[in-house]
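G., the chain you wanted modeled:
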Amino acid sequence: MTERPALVPVDAADLARLRMALERALAGGPPIVPYAAAPFPLPPHDPARLPDGLALAIGTSGSTGAPKLALLTGAALRASAAATHAALGGPGRWLLALPAAHIAGVQVLVRARLADTRAVAVDRRGGFTAAAFVRAAQRLAAGSGPERAYTSLVPAQLARLLADVAGADALTRFDAVLVGGSALSPALRERARAVGVRLVATYGMSETAGGCVYNGLALPGTQVAVEPDGRVRLAGPTLAEGYLGLPARTAKVFVSAAGERWFRTDDLGEVEPDGRLRILGRRDDVIVTGGYKVHPRVVEDAAVMHLPGVTHAVAVGVPDAQWGRALALALVVDSGSGVLGAGEATAWARERLRGELSAHALPRRVIVVDALPERGPGKPDRTAVAALVARQMVGE
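Predicted structure as tokens:
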């Protein structure tokens, strides 16, 4: 078997080094493993058995345990970048606003490289701010390269920018603003549309080299199928080769069917009459309460759309003596909404959501928090949210 170069850990905060290492990997050099805060131990594996053309081992945003490392070839990364440019109308200049240790950030660098440009990065050392985004957007506009300009965000970043006059104005100057990582609420989408932001809702993951479905439609080369139980599966040239050191897990979710190699996601979805894929949520996030199944995303969308002042919502299940599990809702609320204690928040939310949700989908516990815990860029940590609800219940 051909000898393979060992995986090279790279500090994603050192953007110059990451760019050089990524370019070498795409050209056939040593594959890299970007990390965020500190190098982490790699699972046991045989370097000689790494896939041909491997360029990147990138962490998934798993909700439990250590992240799995998806193995992506240079061909998969390039196919993803090419499909993105084809869907958006051509290559462009890219603004990096996401952490480069995650696939969405890495792909901004790859797309820029394939467009013969260099991505301009937002200064995130003090956290993501509208002012830093505006400054970076100005540098991007002053640079050279293709006329078109793009950026990629998570919903929380989009909301922060829309709340800032200069930030919202900067967004309108992009030919496309990709938004993914977690559910994009209808209310947030409408706010962006109302001010002229050309928004593209993306769906994908590390295992698909990033977004592979834009505004519900598969990118060129990608195939989408929904299994009888609602599980979404994806096929195409952007699929990972599997997980590092996890052959059993690889065999379970990367499968062959009808002459194609598919990735069986952990998401539930449905294909709407117009052919667009609608994601309902993760299979393991479904809440069974009193014998009824509730998709958290349905509740979360209703909360953001119909509860005044609510900017973010996460629905989880918590143990309940009567119902088995009760539906709880954590909200981030703008100041001045008048929502104070947990009891008031619960009554306030249930009253306003009657008629919008089935009776079994109404929250039985509502808490208000300053910010929602995350397990990746824009991805809510539902386990941590459930723990917050439990602690508040104990304290009452």
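The longest helix spans residues 74-88.

Shout if anything looks off.
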